[in-house]
Amino acid sequence: DRPLGPADYEKLRDDVEELGQARLGFMMKDIQRFGLSQPSMPMVFSSVPGPPPSSSPIGRLFFLTEFESHTRLVEGRWPEAAPVFQEKVLVMEAVMGARAAFSMGLKKLSEDNQIHLLPFLTELEERITLNIVGLVEPIDTREEYWMHHPAYFDAQGRMVFIYLPEDTFFGGLGKKYPSLVGTFGWYFYLDTGVLTADLAVPTKDAILSLEKDINKRVPRSF
Length: 222
Hints:
Low-confidence stretches: none
Number of strands: 11
Largest sheet: 6 strands, mixed, barrel
Shape: globular
Mean pLDDT: 93
Strand content: 25-35%
């Protein structure tokens, strides 16, 4: 868990990937990374400021690298427009899972498909306005890419995941609210075919040492 500011994240990314390559580079096939806003922003459908209903869904913004290559557009398009910064409003284009949208009653896209997230319940005029320009579904949930957990496409109770490109996540959300906290993670895809009996113990040691290395560099990580 780290601040959303781009400068803080760039250092975090460099540290994690440097340590990962140092310990596991001999068997590393690929690296993907993700970021999530904290699950604390109520979602409302009215642009008029006011307190959210107690039953409001919670919107959680996320990026996942190469998400668009592993996902099919059911309707609409991918985000293209740059974030728009207003005094108390941040406007961004986003997409969401088709099943999650359907569960919210959004069955077909139109020009006025907007949802609003409230980053601060003490400042109800401050809001993140999302223009939903696409509805998506995974191409193949069995791909290793999803790590057996393609949870971004369905509503998880009251939680709704909303995808932003990585540049928008940091250039919009992170730039506007650098002090808010996000959760960041990495997937290291490993070629286990290179392992031999002689490498088994050193590899186990490398994985345990990697966790220690990252925790020393980035406290409270795991």
